[in-house]
Amino acid sequence: MKKILVPIDFSIPSENALKVAAKLAIKNKAELHILHVIELAESLFGTEQFNVNDEQILFFMKMANKKFAEFLDKNYLKNISIIEHVEPGSTSRIIRNVVEKNGIDMVVMGSSGASGLEEIIVGSNTEKVVRFSEVPVMVIKKELEDISFKNAVFASNFNFESMEAFRTAKAFVDSFKAKMQLLYINLPGNKFYSTIEIQDHIKNFLDKVEVPISFENIEIYNDYSLGEGILNGARSLKADLIIIPTHGRKGISHFFNGSVGEDVVNHSELPVLTLKI
After folding, report:
1. Hey, which bits of the chain come out as E strands?
2. Tens of pLDDT along 182-203?
3. What domains lie within the chain, and their CATH numbers?
């Protein structure tokens, strides 16, 4: 983790994320990329690029750069290698572009969550980034006094497609010398399995990734939905970090089936780390 990106919009949640990103940058001796996106109507600048001679865009750019410089005048950013980005466009698209062009290893974002029609129809920029990001995304809601995570939960179905995400999660948790508990959500109906069946399934998974782990670190939690099960299970385990592999569903599949990762990110008060599989 040598390059960390944190998008900011000058809100309290984005500053909470910036503080966490700064601590992660110091811990990993990483380069911190800080991005502010000026969200303008696409009719002003086109879907792919904007006209740099447009006086209205240049005005917004100058104002944003001034506010950006004031916002970054923080003591906790001292002695960190910082790369600043101010770009006009669609937030989620610009974030993806910055990640790709700069070889970003992790995105840290603030979020206040969403509810009601906004959650169903519009969603948040954070949810969109979680859905499409090819790199790990950590979502922060509240200010964290300390980022020395002690008890992380890795929630998964423990199919073999999640192996790489598991390895990434374990490496991240190990870097904090923290405990990682494995969480399986058992659902009613035809998705219900016995405890023995689930334990055998997880054991096969762990044998495949060649990581010995005690069954004492495996929690099987019964609930009516994956999202609620992960939140309730993490609460029961007194976790301070939730880690989830996510498919990043798109289009019609996303609309009808939803995304567990986005749902958890939207409703969790705990930090959530999503890993693309």
Report:
1. 3-7, 31-38, 82-88, 106-110, 137-140, 151-155, 179-186, 218-222, 241-246, 272-276
2. 999 999 988 899 999 999 999 9
3. 3-140 (3.40.50.620), 151-276 (3.40.50.620)
